[in-house]
Amino acid sequence: MTILNGIAASNGVAIAKAYTLEAPNLSFETKKVDDVDKEVKRLDDALAVSKKELEIIKENARRSLGDEHAEIFSAHLLVLSDPELITPMEDKIKNENVNAEAALDEVATMFINMFKAMDNEYMRERAADIQDVTKRVMAHLLQVTFPDPALIDEEVVIIAEDLTPSDTAQLNKQFVKGFTTNIGGRTSHSAIMARSLEIPAVVGTKTVTEDVKDGDIVVVDGMDGEVIINPTEEQLATYKQKQVDFEKQKEIWAKLKNEPTLSKDNTHVELVANIGTPNDVEGVLNNGGEGVGLYRTEFLYMGNSDFPTEDEQFEAYKSVLDQMGDKPVVVRTLDIGGDKELSYLDLPKEMNPFLGFRAIRLCLERDDIFRTQLRALLRASVYGNLKIMFPMIATLDEFRQAKALLLEEKANLKGEGVDVSDDIEIGIMVEIPSTAVIARQFAKEVDFFSIGTNDLIQYTMAADRMNEQVSYLYQPYHPAILTLVNNVIEAAHAEGKWAGMCGEMAGDSIAIPILLGFGLDEFSMSATSILPARTQIKDLSREEMASYKDEILSMGTADEVEAFVRSKTNQ
Ligand SMILES: C=C(OP(=O)(O)O)C(=O)O
Ligand SMILES: [Mg+2]
């Protein structure tokens, strides 16, 4: 038995067999073969098995994530049936007497290099597709396991160095009971996705991939951030009980599902959810969300092999608005960059991607991409209560430019006779310290603020949100963070605007009383945090919390703040 400590990333307890997600060793030797027909058959068999697998994966992705996420696998399937690619491989075996591995590798590499060199985005994507598919076929030829989270068909806990957001998107909740990784933090996007999938997760264990072997029994305690490898009978019983207790707790929370969020002294605050795809809306409604406070639209781009078209985006936005009825839906425009990459957008490697060419910076430069999204949003606006916000705004100028493009596209659509709502609020994410500092100036021009603490904390504390070695600096209750947050809320209210928060801090049980006292209007969090937060707020007095504001803001450390809040709220 071994116990590892990591960062608690998603609530719940998972107990299952380990499934290690590792890149397989695909090295091979080029060999001469005598029986070329047998070798061609070996290649064809590997292609056929790969095809079968991809069809299953595509169907799983379609069922759990929707059509747009499944499309990438259609592109992969096309590669496997393309005679222009397969025939030269077969010819190579027949004419040069080489083994299937060598023929596959040489022909695929030639096409990949050729497509990559083309000044055409579509062809460069084909290169990425061929690369992906070749690995799968090669693994079959070499008879090594190709880890496929989407193909798992027994209950497992996934063990990985890290999970990309698109790996996470492929996980099938029915079988993947939890996951644990070496790296990552509570606000890395794999952790955020784990919470929307409601899968227990512990990230940042540093060594779990070294400590666990396939088939070990692993307990993932997503509440306390512990991973227990091959637990004793006694420990197993303890964690099974913890699972049962957690389910009971959820039943108690569920009683507030259809209640408004009212503090003890009857102040209403809005508890809304963060989502990544239209499929997440079900979880929002099941967890009593009063709206969507952050729709991260980049997942629509990430699950695709090409930019989603205006119509595809329109369908996704309309679907969310339709499902939410008249409840507010805040959609954030494309926030790509940082740990969110697009395989088909060839951007230069950067030294500091989190400080680089991302989000609104990229959208203002590539206004073709941006305008397509804005048009799709505007067309969808008549189907519900849409609000639009721009990510990573650092200057007033960026906001003005983004808003001007939005208004331009609105006028264009109206000119084309398309219906567009006239009541769309336009706001910004406050996640860059410069914007938090001059929130007063911004408040005169925006309709609302949504404070993105995941980034605001990393930029204020100069501590990478993904790096567990500096996670001790990632301090939501640091007086510097609280001062910025308070500044933003006061600035909004001085201009009669509302202020929300969509960073993970909004669902944190120590932060909630502080934010309630500061006067935050809207709390946007993982859907599963909504009912615990509503339960907590019911027992808090807004007036009492407000009376502690000055004292909290004058404290010197996050620890002092935490101890103070705990003492006042019995935590
Ligand atoms: C909500 C935020 O955005 P994201 O986590 O997508 O960067 C944030 O930065 O707080
Ligand atoms: Mg952010």
From TrEMBL:
<dbReference type="InterPro" id="IPR018274">
    <property type="entry name" value="PEP_util_AS"/>
</dbReference>
<dbReference type="GO" id="GO:0016301">
    <property type="term" value="F:kinase activity"/>
</dbReference>
<feature type="binding site">
    <location>
        <position position="296"/>
    </location>
    <ligand>
        <name>phosphoenolpyruvate</name>
    </ligand>
</feature>
<protein>
    <recommendedName>
        <fullName>Phosphoenolpyruvate-protein phosphotransferase</fullName>
        <ecNumber>2.7.3.9</ecNumber>
    </recommendedName>
</protein>
<dbReference type="InterPro" id="IPR015813">
    <property type="entry name" value="Pyrv/PenolPyrv_kinase-like_dom"/>
</dbReference>
<keyword id="KW-0808">Transferase</keyword>
<feature type="domain" description="PEP-utilising enzyme mobile">
    <location>
        <begin position="153"/>
        <end position="225"/>
    </location>
</feature>
<dbReference type="InterPro" id="IPR000121">
    <property type="entry name" value="PEP_util_C"/>
</dbReference>
<feature type="binding site">
    <location>
        <position position="332"/>
    </location>
    <ligand>
        <name>phosphoenolpyruvate</name>
    </ligand>
</feature>
<dbReference type="InterPro" id="IPR036618">
    <property type="entry name" value="PtsI_HPr-bd_sf"/>
</dbReference>
<dbReference type="InterPro" id="IPR040442">
    <property type="entry name" value="Pyrv_kinase-like_dom_sf"/>
</dbReference>
<dbReference type="InterPro" id="IPR008279">
    <property type="entry name" value="PEP-util_enz_mobile_dom"/>
</dbReference>
<dbReference type="InterPro" id="IPR036637">
    <property type="entry name" value="Phosphohistidine_dom_sf"/>
</dbReference>
<keyword id="KW-0598">Phosphotransferase system</keyword>
<dbReference type="Pfam" id="PF00391">
    <property type="entry name" value="PEP-utilizers"/>
</dbReference>
<dbReference type="GO" id="GO:0046872">
    <property type="term" value="F:metal ion binding"/>
</dbReference>
<dbReference type="Pfam" id="PF02896">
    <property type="entry name" value="PEP-utilizers_C"/>
</dbReference>
<comment type="function">
    <text>General (non sugar-specific) component of the phosphoenolpyruvate-dependent sugar phosphotransferase system (sugar PTS). This major carbohydrate active-transport system catalyzes the phosphorylation of incoming sugar substrates concomitantly with their translocation across the cell membrane. Enzyme I transfers the phosphoryl group from phosphoenolpyruvate (PEP) to the phosphoryl carrier protein (HPr).</text>
</comment>
<keyword id="KW-0418">Kinase</keyword>
<dbReference type="GO" id="GO:0008965">
    <property type="term" value="F:phosphoenolpyruvate-protein phosphotransferase activity"/>
</dbReference>
<keyword id="KW-0813">Transport</keyword>
<feature type="active site" description="Proton donor">
    <location>
        <position position="502"/>
    </location>
</feature>
<dbReference type="InterPro" id="IPR006318">
    <property type="entry name" value="PTS_EI-like"/>
</dbReference>
<feature type="coiled-coil region">
    <location>
        <begin position="33"/>
        <end position="60"/>
    </location>
</feature>
<feature type="binding site">
    <location>
        <begin position="454"/>
        <end position="455"/>
    </location>
    <ligand>
        <name>phosphoenolpyruvate</name>
    </ligand>
</feature>
<keyword id="KW-0670">Pyruvate</keyword>
<keyword id="KW-0175">Coiled coil</keyword>
<dbReference type="InterPro" id="IPR050499">
    <property type="entry name" value="PEP-utilizing_PTS_enzyme"/>
</dbReference>
<feature type="domain" description="PEP-utilising enzyme C-terminal">
    <location>
        <begin position="252"/>
        <end position="540"/>
    </location>
</feature>
<feature type="binding site">
    <location>
        <position position="455"/>
    </location>
    <ligand>
        <name>Mg(2+)</name>
    </ligand>
</feature>
<dbReference type="Pfam" id="PF05524">
    <property type="entry name" value="PEP-utilisers_N"/>
</dbReference>
<dbReference type="GO" id="GO:0005737">
    <property type="term" value="C:cytoplasm"/>
</dbReference>
<keyword id="KW-0479">Metal-binding</keyword>
<dbReference type="GO" id="GO:0009401">
    <property type="term" value="P:phosphoenolpyruvate-dependent sugar phosphotransferase system"/>
</dbReference>
<keyword id="KW-0762">Sugar transport</keyword>
<feature type="binding site">
    <location>
        <position position="465"/>
    </location>
    <ligand>
        <name>phosphoenolpyruvate</name>
    </ligand>
</feature>
<dbReference type="InterPro" id="IPR024692">
    <property type="entry name" value="PTS_EI"/>
</dbReference>
<feature type="binding site">
    <location>
        <position position="431"/>
    </location>
    <ligand>
        <name>Mg(2+)</name>
    </ligand>
</feature>
<keyword id="KW-0963">Cytoplasm</keyword>
<keyword id="KW-0460">Magnesium</keyword>
<dbReference type="InterPro" id="IPR023151">
    <property type="entry name" value="PEP_util_CS"/>
</dbReference>
<feature type="domain" description="Phosphotransferase system enzyme I N-terminal">
    <location>
        <begin position="5"/>
        <end position="126"/>
    </location>
</feature>
